[in-house]
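Supplementary notes for students who missed Thursday's class. We covered one full example, reproduced here. Read the sequence, then the structure, then the short commentary at the end.
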Amino acid sequence: MIIRQIITMLSIGLLSNQMMHAQLNQKLTLNPHVMENQTIHYRNTKVEGLNVFYREAGPSDAPTLLLLHGYPTSSHMFRNLIPLLSKKYHVIAPDLPGFGYSDAPDHQQFSYTFDHLTNVVQGFIDQLEIKRFAVYIFDYGAPVGLRLAMNNPEKITGIISQNGNAYKEGLSNEWDPIQKYWNDTSEANRLALKGFVSKEATTFQYYHGVSDPSLIAPETYTLDQKFLDRPGNIEIQLDLVKDYRTNVALYPQFHTYFRKYQPKLLLVWGNKDPYFLPEGAKAYLKDLPNAKLKFYDTGHFALETHATEIGAEIFEFMGTLPK
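Structure (token representation):
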């Protein structure tokens, strides 16, 4: 009798297990993207003769989100965000020239200006035939992304700004030595900024304002510094620091674009960013009063500590955008 009960229980367990596998197989058959969307592809393409590295994930026929990184990082900063968003959206994250795995030609052979970076990204989206997209802007990615938006208003479905500044109110006192260089581009003022690319400066950007330092993955600043320490890279970065003044000069044109086109906007902002203050996030609401603003108790690299929360906000925001 006992043996018969054991056999019956085993049979029921086996049948239940088979049913579970059948249901899972059915889901995967009906929705092949369940697993596929978690795959990130690492690709390269040529733009203006330069190798541009990019990460791509999600169904190609889904709404597209272009992720633009900032200084001193690369598309690596989106490694935790891409899997969250690619469940439903087509996500593309390039490395800008001079950063990450994209080419970094000598500054005497390539003009490192934000206009030129924008031209390369424009060529990139044209080559990939991206007709409509939302854009995520962060740090250096903000002036590039906002130039793209002004040049392609018909392509932009929405903007996500994560500590992507566009107002003078957002510039902290950390910019004072840089603004001194803008006002006087002497060699002495340029040399005074060489510490900007040091290991100490890089780690400061990651840790400042972070309440739980154990959330900062060491490969982040280690990889960034590896690229910063490449021969000749310091001159590349100082050229971009010098040209950043053109972004501030363009702020009024960015505001005109906002007022005219009223793009949908999501602001997700680390409120302890040492470079871009919360006032810079609030300032967007003057021109885009319907924007959603959410602050996070963290620093400059908010994705390092709040990727899940920010990803959820972006996922919901993307669902409200026009196709």
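Commentary. The CA atoms of residues 196 and 254 lie 27 Å apart. The longest strand covers residues 40-47. If anything here is unclear, bring it to office hours.
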